[in-house]
Amino acid sequence: MRTRHRTATVLTASLVLALAAGPLAAPAFAAPPAATARQTTAPDAIALRAALARLPNADATAALVRVGGTDGSWRGSAGVHDLESGAAADPAARFRAGSTTKVVTAATVLRLAAQGKVDLDTPVQRYLPGLLTTAFEPISVRQLLNHTSGIQAGDGFGDAFEDQYAHRFDTLTPRQVVASAVAKGPEFRPGERQDYLNINYTILGLLIEKVTGHSYAAEATRLVLRPAGMRDTCFPGTDPRVLGPHNHGYQAVQQADGTTEFVDVTDWNQADRWAAGDMISTTADLERLITALFRGRIVPGPQLREMFTVPAGIEGASYSAGLQRFEYGGQVYWIKSGARYGYSTAVAATRDLSRTLVYSVGSTDAKGESMNAVAMRIALAALK
Prior knowledge:
By secondary structure, the chain is of the alpha+beta class. It is built from twelve helices and twelve strands. Strands 4-3-12-11-10-9 form a six-stranded antiparallel sheet, sandwiched between helices. Strands 1-2 form a two-stranded antiparallel sheet. A two-stranded antiparallel ribbon has the order 5-8. Helix 1 runs antiparallel to helix 12, helix 2 (101-114) packs parallel to helix 7 (199-212) and helix 6 (174-182) crosses helix 7 (199-212).
């Protein structure tokens, strides 16, 4: 189960909003060299409507978009609830939010740090004795948060869609994922490099449970979801369903005769993604999350700085605690994306909340290597 993000630290010469590749998971935002400084302006409604035109198509079955901030707001949706009925997509639908779960996990850990229950400089080995072998040097909680731990990716049910789909109702526990990662030994010394991997946040989930004595879901809900007003967000555990109103997700699968079949992948047990990526949410809730966070209503100031601090001295580093720094057109955005089969999601915001963007695209190749064309159009329209 490779969850490495190959392009996360490579800013190319074209605008790339890679929304979650293959088993490689998070998007990179890279700006063209000719980009001009962004002026304070309301969202471009014409460009945004154009970005959502002609859905469903081969790239996406639906798209839900919220652009907000002090510069103005825009809401839109397009596509279908499901391919069978052709009914219009529900703009308030729930969806699998993938690695945007990490924003919630990071905020939970930082709140515990503010309460004195977690020290970010303390090795995780002290909180979870016996979890890592002696092959690992001390790894601080902060190094898990910013992906500089050196722990390798855990294994899953295979890399190919067909292998994973065959096991979509099976359970792979977080402990099993961690055990498979630990067995490989370290990839590099802690703090030496930055390598975006789910395993860091899986271990943070175990840390949360150890120091609180409660489940990850209960603590993340108490410390983050509830204060942010995220009433339609949940952690499904081993339940393969998306409960509540939702649009179906599909994966395009090439057939032997050259045709493409769109396989319904809505129901899927996400237990192995857990604190790294199993959250179900809505665009409204994710907008509430990013707004409440950036205004300091969830994580106190001293700890909140961790979410806007990229580790120094590491070539190509762009990840902070739960977010990623992206500079485009002279403006710095803090972003996070996520992808599960059938669903690609992203949140982006300026630090001053002059512009926010949340979208969920019903991508038909959400884990593919190439950029989703619909998601790219949305981002170009929203951030210009």
